[in-house]
Design brief:
By secondary structure, the chain is an alpha/beta fold. It contains five helices and four strands, in the order E-H-E-H-E-H-E-H-H. A four-stranded parallel sheet has the order 2-1-3-4. Helix 1 packs across helix 4 and helix 4 runs antiparallel to helix 5. The N terminus and C terminus are likely disordered.
Length: 183
């Protein structure tokens, strides 16, 4: 059992803002945003952005989310600069979901949110028949759903920063094949 201490990042906080980052902000990060806004509501509000946004959400992303009854009206591909300014929501967590974004120099986020890398293969890069491409989007959804399910159930307010960071990193190492958290 982790004892609550003064190092607890959000001891009495009841709401958290989460940003999912990807390079193109057309698939993985948007899927993460949609899942978090469903599974984490009302405790979490999710956003997504990219370092080099495509300008539109991938049609297969929208199709998949619609088929799973996620609202898609507000989803759009946007640049991460939207989350840097004084009018931007204060971020508590930032998760990179692609290796390219994780290697880039991210902005200095106001409030120094906790971050972790939850890298996943890019479903938009998959080649082949339409069924193969759509299956890649479904697999991305499955992996993100599993990771976000674990995350939203963490006792965040009672964990010290080091323990919470370890949990976040372990979630990002979840096995893609087994759908199990890494040991």
């Amino acid at each position: 059992m982790t004892v609550q201490s003064d190092q607890s990042p959000n001891r009495s906080k009841e709401h958290y803002n989460v940003l999912f980052l990807c390079t193109g902000n057309s698939a993985r990060s948007v899927i993460g945003e949609a899942i978090m806004n469903r599974l984490g509501s009302p405790r979490f509000t999710a956003f997504s952005a990219g370092s080099q946004p495509k300008g539109s959400v991938h049609p297969y992303t929208l199709d998949l989310l619609k088929s799973l009854n996620h609202p898609v009206d507000g989803l759009r591909s946007k640049f991460w600069e939207e989350f840097e300014g004084p009018d931007a929501p204060k971020l508590d967590f930032v998760f990179t979901v692609c290796d390219s974004a994780a290697k880039e120099s991210c902005p200095i986020w106001p409030g120094q949110p906790m971050s972790a890398h939850w890298g996943l293969p890019d479903p938009a890069a998959v080649e082949g028949a339409e069924a193969v491409k759509r299956a890649a989007f479904t697999e991305t959804y499955r992996m993100l759903h599993q990771r976000i399910s674990i995350f939203v159930n963490l006792p965040i307010a009672s964990l010290d920063k080091l323990t919470l960071k370890k949990h976040l990193d372990n979630i990002g190492k979840s096995s893609a094949e087994a759908g199990e958290p890494a040991a």
